[in-house]
Amino acid sequence: MAIQAQCYVELTPESLTVMQSKWLASPSTCVVFEQKQQVLAYALVHPWSRADAPSLNCEISTQNTNSWYLHDMAIALNAQNMGIGKQLIAYVLNLAKTANIDGIGLVAVQGAQSYWQQQGFKPHATSKSLTQSLSSYPDDACYLYLALGS
Fold it and tell me: What is the pTM of this model?
């Protein structure tokens, strides 16, 4: 929760209950990065339909879909520029490929769209459901998707 508060200054951090619902939806796809018994970063990843995103500040439940959603990846301020983000992304992508997942979606906020596009994520057409979900995000929010496999 402390890392989330450090990283998301342009939006209200989600509550512990909401964050836990993301983890409970798929604990095997969520990951933390620790060093010297201190959590420095995390990624919350769970199944979610392609071209859709859960609204912010809403608890979720498990979905039966072959796409994942990278709901949140955050790195403590004192651990930035250490390559942790690339390690987390590589870990998540490896997990997804091993599980034969079709792809991973995310919503880029706080100007992170270019970072995620450098990682291979591409803008994706929006649906009525996605447009509604994006209304809970800051104005600069952009849905991106990384197709995996053939």
Answer: 0.90
Fold of 2-147: Aminopeptidase (3.40.630)
In this prediction, residue 150 has a pLDDT band, given cuts at 50, 70 and 90, of low
Nearest 5 degrees, angle CA 80-CA 53-CA 7?
A: 20
Contact 50, 67 (CB under 8 A): yes
Q: DSSP state, 83? A: S
Q: How far apart are the first and last CA of the chain?
A: 37
Q: How far is CA 66 from the centre of its chain?
A: 16
Nearest to 145 by CA among 83, 96, 84: 96
What is the domain partition of the chain in residue ranges? 2-147
Quick one: CA dihedral 61, 98, 117, 20, positive or negative?
A: positive
With cut-offs at 50, 70 and 90, classify the pLDDT of residue 13.
Answer: confident
Residue 43, classed as helix, strand or coil, is strand
Classify 28 as helix, strand or coil: helix
pLDDT in tens, 16-59: 999 999 999 999 999 999 999 999 999 999 999 998 999 998 99
